[in-house]
Design a protein that fits this description.
eight-stranded parallel β-barrel, 15 helices, 16% strand
Length: 489
């Protein structure tokens, strides 16, 4: 089955994981600039920039900032019709609350979007992809302060006005639901810019999983992001009615581990909390009833929901539902069940699935299931898979080639899964793989965890000349796109 002729094929990156140039041309510090690297066995650590000898991977990343023309040309060679990227908030407003935007930052993205247009590639732009300015963290405690709503809307409005004729597709917050995944304070830091004062002032590295998390503050900050997103959607449509503005959910599809009714109910409750809650608010424009039960059971004071907020949420519903899909988890009431983790989520191990080197369970059939489920839940808007990928250790041969059949073997059944969903009427409009080019892993801070079709000569010891080369998967994905998804051999 061929994909539709207007289907958006491409890849996705985040500014903090690819751009580098972390203080160049007036950019301010952002949350990822405070994160050190890790590896497959050790989580990333958090350390405010006070140690000049420490290795902060995002500071140089893969130097997309200076090499974007080369990279976009490679994407075009593969046949991309869509490129998902983020605008780094700190390039536009270095402190988050500056009176005027930074013209050099605005000009950089002008150049990037112009380069995309030159190659007939449609940009899909995320406004906040874990890139909250550090000054907003220290001055406002991230989105815990309601003042940050206005700061974000001002930033979004600046981008909308500047790029209204260059960008049609927008996303507000990346993986807005990660704060609900319960892995220490990672979601709070990445997604909400919420860090306790004692951690902000730390002089020694702190494991991300050890960052403190206050549920009351988390739900307050998350609500403020909901309001910021809704106001942004409304303002975007005023600036350009043709804008298509979506949410973005880290969808970790969940199954009951057994037919035990207790497992089934536990799975339903957990799935609602982790996956559906944030989607329901942004797509339906209201808090679902089940979340108030969670608030009551966990002693959450809902006074952060102010009069008039319900109207804002209703008026700012998104135009499309986009999500990341890497793995699935199982849920059980059996406390002795073997556990696995991936993309900041936890669950019981599924005995029917294989896993990546990082323990992420591989489940292409689950993508068909997820797309059908989302189409049933949100029948009035299109869907888009904006992250799906396979992190692996790649070996470079003496001739410079990378034979990554394992990556091709990952993508092939996932593309087939989307074909099945389309055949059943799911309104899927696009697919952007995560990491079409190697970049810094958000989860581990590694270069060695490689996702790309394009190899980047950069390593975790700080060596490498940043040169690019095509892996076997590059030529395979090019063939897939050219055949509208019919040639997966």
């Amino acid at each position: 089955m061929a994909f539709p002729k207007n289907f958006l094929w491409g890849g996705a990156v985040a500014g903090n994981q690819c751009e580098g140039a972390y203080l160049e041309d007036g950019k301010g510090l952002s949350v990822p600039d405070m994160l050190l690297g890790g590896d497959v066995d050790h989580p990333r650590t958090f350390l405010p920039v006070t140690d000049p000898t420490a290795f902060y991977p995002s500071h140089e990343a893969i130097d997309f900032y200076h090499r974007y023309k080369e990279d976009i040309a490679l994407f075009a060679e593969m046949g991309f019709t869509c490129f998902r990227l983020s605008i780094n908030w700190g390039r536009i407003f270095p402190n988050g609350d500056d009176a005027e935007p930074n013209e050099a930052g605005l000009k950089f993205y002008d150049n990037v979007f112009d380069e995309c247009k030159k190659h007939n590639i449609e940009p899909l732009v995320t406004l906040c992809h874990y890139e909250i300015p550090w000054a907003i963290v220290t001055k406002y405690h991230g989105f815990y302060s309601r003042e940050t709503i206005d700061l974000f809307v001002k930033y979004a409005e600046t981008c909308f006005i500047r790029y209204k004729d260059k960008v049609k597709y927008w996303l507000t917050f990346n993986e807005i639901n990660i704060a609900c995944m319960g892995e220490g304070g990672i979601g709070n830091l990445y997604g909400l810019g919420l860090v306790e004062d004692e951690d902000i002032n730390a002089t020694d590295p702190i494991l991300l999983t050890d960052l403190k998390s206050d549920p009351q503050k988390m739900f307050t900050a998350l609500h403020h992001e909901f309001i910021a997103s809704a106001l942004t959607v409304k303002r975007g449509h005023e600036i350009n009615p043709d804008f298509v503005i979506g949410n973005m959910i880290a969808h970790v599809t969940e199954y009951p581990l057994t037919p035990n009714p207790l497992d089934i109910v536990a799975c339903q409750n957990h799935d609602n909390y982790v996956n559906n809650f944030c989607g329901d608010v942004q797509v339906r424009g209201e808090y679902p009833a089940y979340i108030f039960k969670h608030f009551k059971d966990n002693g959450i004071d809902t006074s952060f929901i102010r009069e008039g907020d319900d109207k804002i949420l209703k008026e700012g519903v998104v135009d499309m539902y986009t999500f990341s899909y890497y793995q699935t988890n199982c849920i059980t009431v059996d406390e002795n069940a073997e556990q696995v983790a991936g993309n900041m989520s936890h669950g019981a191990k599924n005995p029917y699935l294989k896993a990546s080197d990082w323990g992420w369970q591989i489940d292409p059939e689950g993508l068909t299931y997820t797309l059908q489920m989302l189409a049933d839940r949100y029948p009035h808007i299109p869907l888009m898979v904006v992250e799906n990928g396979f992190g692996a250790f790649d070996k470079v041969e003496e001739d410079g080639s990378v034979h990554d059949d394992y990556r091709i073997d990952y993508f092939r059944p996932h593309i087939q899964a989307m074909q099945k969903a389309l055949d059943q009427g799911v309104p899927l409009i696009g697919y952007t793989t995560w990491g079409p080019i190697d970049l810094v892993s958000a989860g581990t801070g590694q270069y060695a965890k490689r996702y790309g079709f394009i190899y980047v000569d950069r390593h975790d010891d700080g060596t490498g000349d940043f040169s690019r080369s095509r892996k076997d998967s590059f030529f395979w994905y090019k063939k897939v796109i050219a055949s509208d998804g019919t040639d997966l051999s």
